[in-house]
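Allow me, if you will, to draw on your knowledge of protein folds for a short while. I have a record of one protein: its chain in single-letter code and its fold written as discrete structure tokens. Could you please explain, in whatever detail you think fit, how the structure tokens follow from the sequence? The record follows directly beneath this note:
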Amino acid sequence: MGDTSARPGKMHASRNATDGRYCPACVVRHPERPPTRDPRTTVPDTEDLLAMSFFCLLVGVVLIAFAASLLGRIADRWERVRKRREADLAAAEMFYGVHGEFHGVWQEWKAIRGQAFDAADREQRRWALSGRASAAGARVEALVARLATERHLTDRERTLLGCYRQAYRTLGGCLEADLPLGVTLRRQPDGGVLPADHEVWTDSATRSYATFTELATAVGALIAHSGVVPSEAHARASMRAITDSGFESPAWVTHARAALGLPSHSEPTQR
């Protein structure tokens, strides 16, 4: 049998070679496995940090620019709506003013015709009222032009405005001809008007006066309803239609009643 005193040492050395730890009985130290790095605890280098910062900055700039553009469009839209509303209110105020002036001049003209004045005084008062009627008529022309250029008018709305424009001229025409307010249905060859050919606006039952009242209400509703701004071609077409001579008195009564859906002249009026 050989010497067995070295066997435990060899066995011990062999055993320690498998676990990689230092063994006092061995001559050499066995190499250890280098430690691994956890990627979750790895600190990025400077280039990575700069790239991440630049990307975040770029995203922030894009978001800010998008938000500013969106807010700008919203603000511009509300500004246009506000200006449109102001224009609608100005048109409505103009309409109410000229309509009130129409009735004011009419009532004064009725009072003058019902009282006894000397010829000179009466003429002075009549021409003063004629001047007021002309000024109000000029504002109606401005109102019509404004609506034609600021609204996308339908054919019906063009007809209503054309009839209202001519109906308003009735006031100035009656003052100039020294007639009570009403509609002249026909004229004599010499330009004169017979009493039977002049439909005086005595009360609301008078056909032409009832038509004018309905017409004014429809025009007021048109102005109160905000519309779409038309193209230049549409605005010019609207102006041509509104100022067409086919609406001249007394034709405006028939056109207005047709546009308003009122009974025609041949149909009896429901009382």
Observations:
- Helices lie at 7-19, 46-114, 119-150, 155-177, 207-224, 232-242, 251-260.
